[in-house]
Amino acid sequence: MIKAIVVFNNHGKPRLIKFFQHYNEDMQQQIVRETFHLVSKRDENVCNFLEGGRWASGKNSDPENLIGGSDYKIIYRHYATLYFVFCVDSSESELGILDLIQVFVETLDKAFENVCELDLIFHVDKVHYILQELVMGGMVLETNMTEIVTRIEEQSKLEKSEAGLAGAPARVVSAAKNLDLPKLPSNIQLPNLPSFR
Amino acid sequence: MPTVAKGDAMRGLAVFISDIRNCKSKEAEQKRINKELANIRSKFKGDKTLDGYSKKKYVCKLLFIFLLGHDIDFGHMEAVNLLSSNKYTEKQIGYLFISVLVNTESELIRLIIQAIKNDLFTRNPVHICLALQCIANIGSKEMAEALAPEIPKLIVSGETLDAVKQSACLCLLRLFRTSPETVPSGEWTQRVGHLLNDQHLGVVTSATSLIHTLAQKTPEDFRQCVQLAISRLSRIVTSSYTDLQDYTYYFVPAPWLSVKLLRLLQVYPPPEDPAMRGRLNECLETILNKAQEPPKSKKVQHSNAKNAVLFEAINLIIHHDTEPTLLVRACNQLGQFLQHRETNLRYLALESMCLLASSEFSHEAVKKHMDTVITALKTERDVSVRQRAVDLLYGMCDKSNAEEIVAEMLSYLETADYSIREEMVLKVAILAEKYPVDYTWYVDTILNLIRIAGDYVSDEVWYRVIQIVINRDDVQGYAAKVVFEALQAPACHENMVKVGGYILGEFGNLIAGDQRSSPMVQFQLLHSKYHLCSAPTRGLLLSTYIKFINLFPEIKGQLQDVLRNNNNLQNADAELQQRAIEYLQLSTVASQDVLATVLEEMPPFPERESSILAKLKKKKPNVSDIEVKEGKKSSNPPTLNNSAANTPEATPASAPVPVMAAAPAPAPVQSASDDLLGLSAGPAAAVPVTNNFAAPAAPAGGGGLLVDVFDTPPAQNNVSTALAPQAEDNFFKFAIKNNGVLFENELLQIGVKAEYKGNLGRLGLFYGNKTSYPFQFFTPTVSCPGELASALNVQTKPLDVNTVEGGAQVQQIINVECIADFLDAPILSIKFSYSGSMQQINLMLPVMLNKFFEPVEMDATTFFNRWKQLNSPGQEEQKIFKATYPINQDNSRTKLLGFGFGLLDGVDPNPDNFVGAGIIKAQSSQVGCLLRLEPNMQAQMYRLTLRTSSNSVTTRLADLLLKLF
Q: Measured between beta carbons, which residues in chain B are less than 8 angstroms from residue A147?
């Protein structure tokens, strides 16, 4: 089972946090920090796995307090500026999860057209929806990229059709605000009118 | 065309995010966030109803703020309201907010569950999917209780869309994990199994995950799935990659599904049906063959997917552990991976090979790769991989390669990562103990371990080397020599001082002949470390010194000076002070003879599971797998333990005497004495000394209850049916005596006189009325509850009178005959009417098995011969228990004699121990019993060993004896 999915950038700024087991906010942030700490110092060509028991067995931290102890593995991949980190238990195939990360990224790439960190920042909701098509309650839901993309497209269509109806007023307002009206000449020379009599 | 048109984004959100990103400082960011939170709060609180677009925008902002690590304490209600919107987008964002931000204890959970319910019952599949996703993501107990019954319907219904089915499977799986009891199996379980045949591979994948988890709980319910899974797997692996179209991932057909199916099959043993088995083996072979084919793509994704399936297939082969050819092929394949350029594959190969090493069929094949693994240990750049290499070396180690592996691990230890040192130390220590080349090698190895990684050598490790040195005469001189040498290093680890101090204190005399290690030199060497050590170690050294006073009287003066030193005599540490004072006094007061007895060499330690192994298991629970399999092998190599372990059972006389020399032997550190030196506190002492009679007594009382239902007049009121309060205490006293008072209260006294011969006995009961008023309707009855009726024949002579006058005594005779061995005692229940109210007293009649016991005399040889004959399981019962009464030689003797044993003096070399023999005479059989009782004064414990020819007699006598000491 996948316990958590975390995406953060090279500086450790979280871009996506998804836990399939409840932790409070502080704990979630702490896990992100510690995971970043562990993952970021690793070389590029080492293996993509880290063991729970090991990475938390430093003298000062209790192995139990980070996502459940030695049965857990961290499986991660590094793409350009982002780390994609999955924390899984022993019932998952390591290479399978590695492939799943790849599917996730490829799907994001299709959805956003050359996905980059900014897309994840500005479209958190979309990223969540895409992830929901892949993983549900910690289990792999769908791995067929075509199928996933189709489902996302259906969602977008629905969104658009709804936006077309109900979103209209809001759009009109915002459109009006941003309307770049051609500037009126500032000093209009009024023609001299014949004086009234 | 991109699916998400970027222009659609919400402008306000984008502006906010840009603002945050432009913040120059943490404070500025915090300020901007606070401003935004205030803004959203006022919007939510405002009277104006927000339109869907704005709600969505604000929720997105909150999500972003949450991601930055800020607490969001509002907006939950708005999100819940969004759930009941008819618009997909609003519903969707509502669900998103809830699954990210709402915790399972939220008070809103009821509202959420209601909203989910509404969505589940719509006919709109998109809404159903959203609801299912939310359940699966939160998966709380309340949700499970409220919603679990609905989900199976969705899975098995013919009308459900594939996408919904897929989600429903995983949703149910999640709820099952949260609280299995809410997902009862039913008619649907059968039908879930058939989803393995579904057209849609996405559905099959989800269903396999669900079945895998359910089958782990109740394998029987899903046994039919084995066949379905095999045929599905076979169809996938034999298909060409174009067949499965979209489920082909980089030219590998449905890798995830294959992995899941292989995992599911690992829940079950290999199929028994030969056809099915053949088909499965074909699949596995195909997967192994494919690994040898040239890759269809250079991309890493292709090889990843292919190998994911391959590794899972190998795991299944290892799990089945029945096909030697497949196992060896798997091993060869992993061997190739060991040298692969992909680090991931090397890591996984080491991991899987570790499992293979524990299989009988492939252990040898794994060993061939030892050199590669050692190279990996030395050259891998990644600590994760090196760790795996250590694990594998440990797993593949046996007698043939132990020396090399231990040497390699020791040399790696010098540079090993700090994070894995402790575990490595334990592993080295275990291997050295398990596969010793010889004992000098063992001692060398452990001392090296302390030298190289002293900080990581836990107490268990150095305790163990001492245990082994003490138990093996042939290594003691050598051990003394090497610790002496090791201590000469200018800086040596405190653990080395501990081991050195202990060993020299015991065996320093063995090397004292050499001028270079004369007593004085030994002492000065140890004492030069004294001031650098912690208090517990100093305590240990003080014990060494007192032992030296015994071993080397010639340097007594110098040793006493140290003890007399004010630093010790007035030490702030109470333990050190006490030791110094006591040892000094002992050395002054006691004669050389007394000293020699008190400070005798430590007796051998009883053999038991290595405490190091226990520690490693605690640290890494999965290690035990290796050990278990190890134990299964018939070719289990002899370990250090075995040599001595066999003796105690075979000949009690030569068994290690478990009583400590009654002296402050070097058992200084309290924690040390708990584990290692306090023999009595060994694992066996963990056997709780339970009140074995408590259990039988309860049904006996119940039997009494039945009796009075039939016998007593209905008018009774304050009649107690339980046993009288003091009944039990008094009862056990009768185990070793025949006459006495069985019961007494303010009304009644009951005395007993009994005599036994062979399997017959006769009891006289004397009922005395202590009051001045008569007892009316006085009726004592004896009953034998349960099995006892057939084991014991009891004849009661009814009383001549049914009234006992005030101050008078009446007598009743009871005859008993022992038919077979028994545990419970007959119940004596007495009813009478005293001044108008009914009284009832229930007692246990003091007839126990040992009453039919006759002592036997025999000489030592006969005893040992018989002892050895009684060696099958069940015939022996050993109990180690805490003394209830103070240990006293004479009392113990009286008790055993009273119990019926013939005591055999001079059989046990230790005069404190008791050895006895007797025969139980029942009508049906006669059972010979042998006993050995070893008191340990210091720990106030006993070890009781009983051997008899009948299993039940053994336990029953042991239970009785436990009560007496």
A: 202, 246
Using an 8 Å CB-CB cutoff, list chain A residues near B312.
93
- Distances in Å between the Cα of B669 and the Cα atoms of B383, B458, B500, B587, B605 are 36, 14, 15, 21, 17
- Mutation site for A-interface testing, chosen from B67, B87, B129, B258 by largest number of A Cβ within 10 Å: B67
Residue of B nearest to A60 (CA): B419
Helix (H, G, I), strand (E, B) or coil at B267: coil
The residue written with tokens 């990659």 in the block is B241
Whether A46 sits inside 8 A of B385 (CB atoms) is yes
Dihedral (Cα; A155, A159, A161, A167), 10-degree rounding: 180
Distance from CA of B194 to the nearest CA of A (A): 18
- Amino acid type, B433: E
d(CA B941, CA B956): 20
**In the prediction, which pLDDT does B608 show?**
62
B347 known member of a binding site = no
The residues, any chain, with a CB within 8 Å of residue B512's CB and separated by 6 or more, are B518, B519, B522, B551, B552
Find the length of chain B: 965
Distances (CA, A) of B916 to A25, B634, B890, B895, B949: 69, 37, 15, 12, 15
Model confidence, pTM: 0.63
Candidates B844, B843, B841, B796; CA nearest to B822 is B844
| B357 closest CA partner among B377, B320, B327 | B327
The predicted complex's ipTM stands at: 0.80
Average pLDDT over residues B935-958: 82
Give whole-number Cα distances, B235 to A116, B191, B202, B307, B371, in Å.
39, 21, 16, 18, 40
> What count of CB pairs under 8 Å joins A to B?
206
Mean pLDDT of B202-208: 93
pLDDT of B243 reads 62
In whole angstroms, how far apart are CA B648 and each of B213, B603, B684, B868, B932? 47, 14, 14, 11, 12
Contact B272, B221 (CB under 8 A): no
- pLDDT at residue number B619: 63
Kindly determine whether residue B96 and residue A128, on different chains, have CB atoms separated by under 8 Å: yes
Q: When comparing pLDDT for B333 and B807, which is higher? A: B333
| Residues of A with Cβ-Cβ distance to B11 under 8 angstroms | 174
User: What is the pLDDT at residue B920?
Assistant: 84
Record: contact A110-B88, CB cut-off 8 A: no
Out of B139, B259, B347, the one facing A49 most closely (by C-beta) is B347
**Which distant-in-sequence residues (6+ apart) come within 8 Å of A34 by Cβ?**
A55, A56, A61, A66
B-chain residues within 8 Å CB-CB of A137? Answer: 133, 135-137, 139, 170-171, 173-174
Tens digit of each residue's pLDDT (9 = 90 or more) over A66-99 = 554 557 889 999 998 999 999 998 888 999 999 9
Q: State the nearest Cα–Cα gap between A8 and chain B, in angstroms.
A: 10
Q: Which residues contact B109 (CB under 8 A, 6 or more apart)?
A: B102, B140, B142, B143
Q: Is position B346 annotated in a ligand binding site?
A: no
Nearest chain A Cα distance for residue B113, angstroms: 17
Q: Which of B95, B384, B387, B422 to mutate to test the interface with A (most CBs of A within 10 A)?
A: B384
Q: What is the pLDDT of residue B725?
A: 62
With 0-12 / 13-18 / 19 or more C-beta atoms within 10 angstroms meaning exposed / middle / buried, residue B578 is: middle
Question: Between B104, B167, B384, which is nearest A136 by CB?
Answer: B167
CA distance B570 to B579: 11
A167 and B52: CB-CB below 8 Å? yes
Choose from A50-64, B486-500, B844-858, B906-920 the range with maximum mean pLDDT: B486-500
Cα angle A123-A126-A131, degrees, rounded to a multiple of 5? 125
The pLDDT value given to residue B307: 93
